[in-house]
Design brief:
By secondary structure, the chain is of the alpha+beta class. The chain has a domain at 5-73 and 112-143. 28% of the residues lie in helices and 32% in strands. It is built from 5 helices and 8 strands, in the order αββββαβααβββα. The chain has helices at residues 5-15, 57-64, 75-80, 91-102, 140-143; strands spanning 20-27, 30-36, 44-47, 50-54, 69-74, 120-122, 125-131, 133-138. A 5-stranded mixed beta sheet has the order 5-2-1-7-6. It starts with a helix and ends with a helix. The model has no long low-confidence stretch (mean pLDDT 94).
Length: 145
């Protein structure tokens, strides 16, 4: 059983297939996109054995000031991408759909785990797309072994 945050991060990093991350977050009703090669350690936490991520307001302000962060769209525009007919049911799925379509690729709901593939490939770089609002990075079951 994975019992500590550091242990979970080590297990996750050993199994992940992505090369980089596209992370979305909300600040003042605006969606920002943060591109990074590593998950922000300060945003990670354990919840019932699952590795999760959430950005504090202080971290959001720090990321917005960085060169790896850009303003992407309004919260209202993100909400318009929720479409239950194609199983796009949450802000996280809507963000993944927006980013995928932004890169001229077709989005569809998939169930590919982090250790088998990534969410998006652009210029031979595999990305994991996350929306940093208490999102799950990896479940306990997938970290074990």
């Amino acid at each position: 059983m994975v019992t500590s945050l550091n242990h979970a991060i080590v297990k996750y990093n050993a199994k992940k297939k992505c090369n980089a991350y596209i992370i979305g977050f909300l600040y003042a009703d605006t969606v920002f996109v943060y591109n990074t090669k590593v998950l922000p350690h300060k945003a990670l936490y354990m919840d019932c054995g699952n590795l999760r991520m959430h950005f504090s307001e202080a971290l959001k302000r720090k990321l917005i000031a960085s060169k790896n962060c850009t303003k992407f769209c309004s919260l209202d525009k993100l909400i318009t991408y929720i479409d239950k007919s194609i199983k796009c049911n949450s802000l996280g799925e809507a963000f993944e759909r927006m980013i995928t379509e932004y890169h001229n690729q077709k989005w569809y709901k998939d169930y590919v785990p982090f250790y088998k593939g990534n969410d998006l490939t652009v210029n031979d770089i595999g990305y994991s797309i996350k929306f940093a609002n208490k999102c799950t990075i990896a479940r306990q079951k997938s970290l074990q072994g």
